[in-house]
């Protein structure tokens, strides 16, 4: 497994890197025998250390966790524990996903834009309805089944996931609703 352990304005020493590699490696090994990539970023938020981890599984799924604590080792351990809990909860589905899928998840590129917020114009009518684009990036849209998309959204801790439905190739969206349920948007292509 490839590790990328870094800190935002924090020096991450060799001892912490070794601790993270050992603990995270043991956790991931319990649930996935295939090689993966792991990214762990440490930062400070007032008096707490924040640890954010993202693990890319070889099947194409991504698992994310975030934790904060007053000590950096405690933040790392709490983050790894959250990831362990997520993987334990989805262990059977991850195994079934791996068995059913003979090849890794395919990704298609798509442009992504960041639009400027008009905070100073609150209360006034905007001059134009055309938003100002402040950044252009490339994002990847996975080809998944609906069940895999829901699992991916929950593993990543994301409120929404855009994906290409494997059954018909159309773009779909799953999202976490306010009532706690998951919503699925499947537009019908009519011409």
Automatic annotation (TrEMBL):
Record keywords, A-Z: Cytoplasm, Translation regulation
Keyword presence, Cytoplasm: yes
Residue stretches making up the Sigma 54 modulation/S30EA ribosomal protein C-terminal domain: 130-183
Protein origin, superkingdom: Bacteria
SUPFAM superfamilies: Ribosome binding protein Y (YfiA homologue)
Primary location recorded for the protein, binned into one broad class: cytoplasm
CDD domains reported in the protein's UniProt record: RaiA
Listed InterPro entries: HPF/YfiA_ribosome-assoc, HPF_long/plastid, RHF-like, RHF/RaiA, Ribosom_S30AE_C, Ribosom_S30AE_C_sf
Family to which this protein belongs: Belongs to the HPF/YfiA ribosome-associated protein family. Long HPF subfamily.
Protein name as catalogued: Ribosome hibernation promoting factor
Record gene name: raiA
């Amino acid at each position: 497994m490839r590790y990328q352990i870094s800190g935002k304005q924090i020096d991450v020493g060799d001892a912490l890197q070794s601790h993270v590699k050992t603990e995270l490696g043991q956790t991931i090994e319990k649930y996935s025998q295939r090689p993966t990539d792991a990214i762990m970023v440490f930062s400070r938020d007032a008096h707490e250390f924040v640890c954010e981890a993202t693990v890319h599984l070889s099947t194409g799924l991504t698992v994310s966790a975030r934790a904060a604590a007053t000590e950096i080792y405690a933040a790392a351990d709490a983050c790894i524990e959250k990831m362990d809990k997520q993987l334990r909860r989805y262990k059977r589905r991850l195994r079934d996903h791996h068995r059913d899928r003979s090849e890794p998840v395919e990704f298609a590129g798509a442009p992504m834009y960041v639009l400027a917020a008009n905070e100073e114009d609150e209360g006034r009518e905007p001059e134009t309805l055309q938003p100002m684009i402040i950044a252009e990036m490339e994002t990847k849209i996975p080809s998944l089944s609906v069940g895999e998309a829901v699992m991916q959204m929950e593993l990543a801790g994301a409120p929404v996931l855009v994906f290409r439905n494997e059954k018909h190739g159309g773009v779909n969206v799953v999202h976490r609703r306010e009532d706690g349920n998951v919503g699925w948007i499947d537009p019908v292509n009519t011409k």
